[in-house]
Prior knowledge:
Layout: H1 6-13, H2 28-40, E1 52-54, H3 68-84, E2 89-91, H4 97-111, H5 115-119, E3 130-132, E4 148-150
Parallel strand pairs: 1-2
Antiparallel strand pairs: 3-4
Amino acid sequence: MEMKTVQELMAASNGGPETVPERFVRKAEGVEKAAAEAEADGLLPLADEAPIIDLSLLPPSPPPPASAEAVADELQSFHSALTSWGCFQAINHGMTGSFLDQVREVAKEFFALPSEEKQRYLRADGDMEGYGSDIILSDQQVLDWTDRLYLTVYPEDRRKLDYWPQKPDLF
């Protein structure tokens, strides 16, 4: 099933929520039910902010200078973040703020490109990598209101360079 890009859907909606396709509308009771089920399964309830994980406390090779208790606590936080949220904010990862700002700027430039340019990197059916929107698994699936560019970075031998944009130039 082919989906329009978020930009095409926004243009078609003329800014009015009544024209947003039903596939993108999450019912409040559905969110509340999912949160209650997660809590019943022993997962943490939803919070206002994503969990923060200190990567300097996780065990690399060689072991970190942190205490065994601090490492165990951070591993438990990591597990909890993944099971309750599916994501987390990483700190002490070794990337500079200026590098991350540059990555954000290049990403903004890519998503601001004309649709025809982004379509050159469209993901193939059944493939996670490339440009596009949600992979649709069922007709009842509620979709995210987003376009994505998913690329494998490491290991380098698994990079699919056909999906790596030529524009913007710094990409």
